[in-house]
Structures are given as C-alpha cells and as structure tokens.
Amino acid sequence: MNNTLEKYFSLKDKVVLLTGACGGIGSELAKGLAGAGGTVAIADIAVEKGEALVKEMEGEGHKAFYLDISKMDSIKKCVDEVLEAFGRVDVLVNCAGINKREGFLDVEESTYDRMMNINLKGMFFITQEVVKRSMMKTGGKIINIGSYNTTSMLGGCSVYGATKSAVYALTRSMCIEWAKFNIQANCLAPGHILTPLTTVTWENPSRAEYLRQRISAGRPGTPEELVGITIMLTSHASDYVSGALFDVDGGALAGGQPWQYDTKY
Ligand SMILES: NC(=O)c1ccc[n+]([C@@H]2O[C@H](COP(=O)([O-])OP(=O)(O)OC[C@H]3O[C@@H](n4cnc5c(N)ncnc54)[C@H](O)[C@@H]3O)[C@@H](O)[C@H]2O)c1
C-alpha cells in the first residue's frame, strides 16, 4: 500500500468483529477486511465454517467464535471471548441475517419472531454489548448491513423488509447517541447479490427476469463488489461519515433498466 492508501484505508492494528461472517457476503468481507490489515473475529453460528475461513484469510491472528445472535447468553459469551482474545473491538460489522420469503398473510408468529430476533434484536444487543464494554472507551466504526428492502420492497418480504428498514433507523440512533464517543455508524445496503441466501430467487426464471429488469447493471452483484466500500466505511477514510445509508445495488433504486426511449445511441 502506498502512503496515501495506508493513511486512509489501512485497518492495521484494528480488531474487527464480523457477525454472519461465514455467509456469502460475510466471508468475502472477512477476507477483504483481513487483506486491508484488520484482525478479524469471525462470529457465526456455523463455527466450523469459520475455522476453515480463518485459514483462507491473509495475515495472522484471526479467530472463529460461536455466535447464535438470536440468544442473549450467546451474544454475551461471544463478546466475552472476543474481548478476552483481542482486548477490544474497533470495528463491528453486523452482517448476520436471514430471510424467509412468504406473503404477509402467510407469516406465522414463529417465523416473525425468528427473523426479528436474528436480523434486529440480536444486532441491537450485540452492538450494545460491544459499545458498552469496548467501543465507547476507544471510539470505532459500526457497519450495519441493510438491504434493497431497507428502502424498497419485494413481494413476500414483509418481515425481512421491516427488519432491514429498522436496521437503518437503529443506525441513525447509533450515529447521534455515540458521536460523543467518536463512533461512526453507517448502513450498507446491498442490492441483489448472488449468495446462498438468494440462489433460490436467481434460480427462479420469472423472478430472475423481474430482478434483471430492475437492476441498471442487468445482473446480480457479487459479494466482492461490497468489499471496497466496507473497507472505506471501517477505515479513517470515513471519519466524518456517519448515520448514512449506502446502497450498493447496480442502479436498482435509481430505476433499473430504462424503458424504450428515443436516442441516437
Ligand atoms: N445476498 C443478498 O442479495 C443480500 C442483499 C441485501 C442484504 N443482504 C444481507 O446481507 C447479510 C448476509 O447475507 P448473505 O447473502 O451473505 O446470506 P448467507 O445466508 O449466505 O449468510 C448469512 C450468515 O448468517 C449466519 N447466521 C444465520 N443465523 C445466525 C444466527 N442465529 N447467529 C449467527 N449467525 C447466523 C449464517 O450461518 C450465515 O453464515 C444478511 O444480513 C442479509 O440480509 C443480502
């Protein structure tokens, strides 16, 4: 890294706690954040995948931790273990999330509770735990992973969309309440990214065509396409950026594919 890149974007000596780190998006973020110099605590319910992931990451010192973010005792235990291993958390990336696509009228209470507990309640309380026990003393960066559904909506995503809109609301609370601790919190909202979470959608011909029409780029994004902005939002480059929503969606919210219009080109 040359001096300018090092000064603004290096995560050297930064301890990063990344939830949902073993998923399609999380595992690319883990590799990217490690590549930028960070020491990454991989936190996921799929801890054996986490141990394999650690071996693929650049640099030393990364470690996998078991986390069931839907359980308060697991959140506390995971943060205990991370603090014991690394002493502090400089960066928290809240990436753990699930979706179950079904109509508003079909959703049962257990599905509602599960999505709320993982996508929202767990993210709320792990952040509270990390800030109280570490980040309020040293400052830091928080990235909350939102979604296209933070702003817009797809059929069969009512509960998921509600959690992801709320993730951005919580991001604004974090921004205004914790600026005094030198903490910056932002919401990164991926558009339609091809991962295990969305394979079911992209393998469905009518839904895949529906989505392609609504993405200016005409294709799904890749997890790698979220890495650069994540490094920016976790590094000094974003010291005056807080409370903001960043849509990385190939132009989906901008309007997708244009209709037929007169043009010489
Ligand atoms: N893929 C997309 O197109 C897309 C778009 C917008 C937002 N997102 C969001 O990005 C994040 C990652 O999505 P992804 O596509 O990588 O999904 P994924 O299913 O590949 O990964 C999700 C990860 O979360 C972990 N997880 C699930 N339940 C957990 C729990 N109780 N405790 C701890 N970890 C748990 C899983 O083990 C998995 O590693 C999610 O918050 C998702 O809502 C994804």
Topology:
Elements: H1 3-9, E1 15-19, H2 24-35, E2 39-44, H3 47-56, E3 63-66, H4 72-86, E4 91-94, H5 109-138, E5 140-145, H6 158-178, E6 183-190, H7 199-202, H8 205-213, H9 227-234, E7 245-248
Parallel strand pairs: 1-2, 1-4, 2-3, 4-5, 5-6, 6-7
The protein binds nicotinamide-adenine-dinucleotide.
Residues 19-20, 22-26, 44-46, 67-70, 95-98, 118, 145, 147-148, 190, 192-193, 195-198 line the site of nicotinamide-adenine-dinucleotide.
Looking at how many chains there are and whether they match, the oligomeric state comes to single chain
Strand neighbour order, sheet with most strands: 3-2-1-4-5-6-7
Order of SSEs, N→C? HEHEHEHEHEHEHHHE
**CATH homologous superfamily placement:** NAD(P)-binding Rossmann-like Domain
Largest sheet: 7 strands, parallel
Chemical compounds bound to the protein: nicotinamide-adenine-dinucleotide
CATH structural architecture: 3-Layer(aba) Sandwich
Overall shape: it is globular
Percent helix among the residues? 40-55%
N/C terminus separation: 40 Å
Question: Averaging pLDDT over every residue, what do you get?
Answer: 97
CATH topology: Rossmann fold
Care to describe what's here?
The chain is α/β, with parallel strands linked by helices and 265 residues long. It has nine helices and seven strands. α4 (72-86) packs parallel to α5 (109-138). The chain has helices at 3-9, 24-35, 47-56, 72-86, 109-138, 158-178, 199-202, 205-213, 227-234; strands spanning 15-19, 39-44, 63-66, 91-94, 140-145, 183-190, 245-248. The termini are far apart. A seven-stranded parallel sheet has the order 3-2-1-4-5-6-7, sandwiched between helices. The protein has a single domain, classed as NAD(P)-binding Rossmann-like Domain (Rossmann fold, 3-Layer(aba) Sandwich), CATH 3.40.50.720. The chain is globular, with a radius of gyration of 18 Å. The protein binds nicotinamide-adenine-dinucleotide. The site of nicotinamide-adenine-dinucleotide has 29 residues, from α2.
